[in-house]
Specification:
Helix content: 40-55%
Strand content: 5-15%
Number of domains: 2
Shape: globular
Number of strands: 9
Order of helices and strands: EHEEEEHEEEHEHHHHHHHHH
Oligomer: single chain
Radius of gyration: 22 Å
Number of helices: 12
């Protein structure tokens, strides 16, 4: 049975249908940095303030800074929190992901950035995926996030009890996902999994996990996807399919076709030629596709 991911989720999102739907596939751990402040005004308005190149969480009405309290909360919680990802509240000064308003002098918005707690998460656990619930309406953002979350959950299961052959199989199934993020790391991971030095298995698994997490933390480019699709096509090349496949790859590279269209075409092609190796790759089905029913269709790039 596949490992169930563990997701830390902003507590204020728990009553939303999205998170309730996610709980069918993912174990949810609620957290709320705001509640950790224990102030007398639970609905007090806070802002992310930047003065003299220093970020603070600040209440304009109370003239109160709670930055140190938040740092203490994060420092006590995050090192011991064993999760595969964080799903946080959009636009929050605490939990926003690239979309929290940063205020300068006279409470004027100067830019948007990560919320203060989100920055703490990235500092403590830089290789763990972090996303906001609002950004998941974008298919490519959603796919990237859940791909990493489910891959890290499977990796955690492998570390807990996987045998040598299971490590080799893990590497085989994730080959093109790793290539997408970093061909360099793919070579490193292949050497680790081969274990030619016959190191103890637990040592090999720990080394593999560290490099795997580092690889998936690298954001793939359009060119990275193009490279992977050309490699995949090489496994199932047929003259009658070639021009259509190459044209679709070119269309994607030029922004005239979507990632979803490209994935669908190549899965159909692999099924048509009966290539079980390509179809077994996690690159095509990195998480349960039933998750997609939780979102309405949205325009793609």
């Amino acid at each position: 049975m596949p490992a169930r991911p563990r997701l830390a989720v902003s507590q204020c999102l728990l009553e939303e249908g999205l998170v309730q739907g996610l709980s069918e596939f993912i174990d949810v751990t609620p957290l709320c940095p705001r509640l950790s402040l224990r102030i007398s005004y639970p609905r007090e308005f806070f802002v992310l303030s930047e003065l003299e190149n220093s970020l603070e969480i600040y209440s304009p009405r109370l003239k109160l800074r709670v930055t140190e309290e938040l740092i203490a909360f994060a420092s006590s919680l995050l090192p011991a929190l064993q999760v595969d990802g964080f799903l946080l509240r959009s636009e929050s000064p605490f939990c926003g992901v690239k979309d929290a308003k940063v205020y300068g002098r006279e409470l004027k918005v100067v830019r948007r950035d990560d919320g203060f707690f989100t920055r703490c998460v990235r500092n403590h656990q830089p290789l763990i995926p972090v996303e906001s619930h609002g950004r998941l309406s974008d298919y490519e953002v959603r796919r990237a996030f859940f791909t990493r979350v489910f891959a890290l959950a499977e990796l955690r299961s492998l570390l807990a009890g996987g045998k040598e052959r299971e490590l080799v199989e893990f590497h085989r199934r994730h080959k093109y996902l790793i290539m997408l993020h970093s061909p360099h790391h793919l070579k490193l991971l292949g050497n680790i999994a081969a274990n030619r030095q016959r190191r103890p298995l637990e040592e090999v698994k720990r080394a593999y996990a560290a490099v795997f997490m580092e690889a998936l933390a690298k954001k793939p480019s359009v060119r990275s996807y193009v490279n992977v699709f050309y490699h995949l096509y090489g496994h199932m090349k047929r003259r009658e399919d070639g021009e259509a496949a190459r044209e679709l790859i070119r269309s994607f590279e030029e922004g005239r076709a979507t990632l979803r269209q490209l994935l669908s075409h190549f899965m159909s092609l692999a099924e048509k030629v009966g290539n079980s190796y390509v179809l077994s790759q996690s690159f095509f089905a990195p998480y349960p596709q039933e998750l997609e029913a939780l979102w309405n269709e949205s325009p793609e790039r």
